[in-house]
Amino acid sequence: MRQLTSVDAQFLALESARQSGHVGGLAILDPSTRPDGKLTLASIHDLIAERLPLLPPLRWRLVEVPFGLDYPYWVDDPDFDLDFHVRELALSPPGNDEKLAEQVARIVARPLDRARPLWEIYLIHGLGADRVAMLTKIHHSLIDGLSGAEIMGVLLDLSPEGRDAPEPLAGSVDGEPTEVEMLARGLLGLPRYPLRLLRALPSALPNLDETAFNTLPGTGVASRVADAVGRALTRGDGGVLERTTLKAPRTTFNGRISPHRRFVFGRLSLEAVKRVKNRHECTVNDVVVSICAGAVRRWLEEHGELPDEPLVAQIPVSVRTSEQAGTYGNRIMLMSAPLFTNVEDGVERLRQTHGALLSMKERHRALPAELLQDVNHFIPPAVFSRAARVTFALSSGAARPTWNLVISNVPGPQFPLYLAGARLEANYPVSVITDGMGLNITVMSYCGKLDFGIVADRDQMPDLWRLMDWLDDELQDLLTVG
């Protein structure tokens, strides 16, 4: 048995009838590299069955502690049924990007079944050019960006021929624990809560305003006082970073979301982004965030709600160390950065973005790696889910949300990969939106391209495809200036 951390549990807690906590990816595959030129459900099924010894999270099922006395546990599912998780469907002809995106949006809007391991795979036929799509859904409580990439790394190969199969699973799976056993674990865990809280206080309290708790009344004052006291006790008065004062304005996509989603996807040239990066002496991530700001600015302008101040982007940052590779779960920090939608000139916007992201990196280095987990330890497990939902509700109903949107840029391999012998052509991320933060732009680089996956609430942003067009326009504008 493996207990979830408070951060893992937070992704379970955010789920409701309107929002889900799973993430995924839309892979576009070319079956012509297979000997038979076809990719079938049976080939995907056989690949996963063969690699299961290297993918323990795919067999884990969630077991709750009675009365919520402690965080839940993962246990090996004694009734694991691979056929339930691997599915297929076809688009109605003629298959195109719009139909594929609509199908993906409908699938990701449906919650995962908590009575089974929290993942699904869909093989989608009917695309043009004899391509096949594969959509993965896996719960965020199981993986973050890096551990998700580790799972895909097990399924993907460097050549169409694949690799030697791992040793089959040995021994039998332990039986599921009884309610009495789980209750006993919960009771034994009760004394751990005050200990976790005491350990978390010194690092978490001074940094509360860097978290979603900054919507709660008095958080900023408590955070500043704790920070000042801590520096006084350690006699540290030099080299202190200025605390973030970012305040997110309210937009259409910062309200209460519906149960329905829109998803769009597209590609930009990584080489073109690098040309801009070299010309303006910044980073690839600076360029990505800046063109996202430009595209969102155009959307806000078109809808008559462009604020005079910058938006605030949530940027997930991994704190996973090399020693923690293969441990799955979540080891992330959620950082805040201004998104300069208020700056019309693209070059000036890129310059300001570069400076802001440098400051964000400095704040990241100054913050404790376990900040998100430590802050969660302020809440007893028995009321953790309810408190998390209240925090999201406050963010969606407050005059100012904590963040306006998510922007995440995940570096990927720059060489071809293969899944069951089929060449991976593109891998578009599919991520999470929540109350108060109904827009998510996630980017993954692969084989000389930047693969964008954009998720929004279906009602809040019905014209989401425009964002993908504007991302390309913003990049072209930066390429044409001297």
Give the helix/strand layout.
Layout: E1 2-3, H1 6-13, E2 22-30, H2 41-51, E3 60-63, E4 73-76, H3 82-85, E5 86-90, H4 97-108, E6 119-125, E7 132-139, H5 145-155, E8 156-157, H6 179-189, H7 192-204, H8 219-233, E9 261-269, H9 270-280, H10 284-302, E10 311-318, E11 332-339, H11 346-366, H12 371-376, H13 384-397, E12 405-410, E13 418-419, E14 422-430, E15 439-446, E16 449-457, H14 465-480
Parallel strand pairs: 5-6, 10-12, 12-15
Antiparallel strand pairs: 1-4, 2-7, 2-14, 3-4, 6-7, 8-13, 9-16, 10-11, 13-14, 15-16
Strand content: 15-25%
Task: Provide the CATH top-level class of the largest domain.
Answer: Alpha Beta
CATH architecture of the largest domain: 2-Layer Sandwich
Count of discrete structural domains: 2
- Strand sequence of the main sheet, in spatial order? 5-6-7-2-14-13-8
CATH fold description of the largest domain: Chloramphenicol Acetyltransferase
Report the order of strands and helices: EHEHEEHEHEEHEHHHEHHEEHHHEEEEEH
- SS summary, helix count: 14
Helical content class: 25-40%
CATH superfamily of the largest domain: Nonribosomal peptide synthetase, condensation domain
Based on DSSP secondary structure assignment, what is the total number of beta strands? 16
| Major sheet characteristics | 7 strands, mixed
Helix/strand/pairing category: alpha+beta
* Residue-averaged pLDDT: 85
Q: Which blocks of ≥5 consecutive residues have pLDDT under 50?
A: 213-243
- What is the CA-atom radius of gyration, in angstroms? 23 Å
What is the global morphology? Answer: globular
Terminus-to-terminus distance: 59 Å
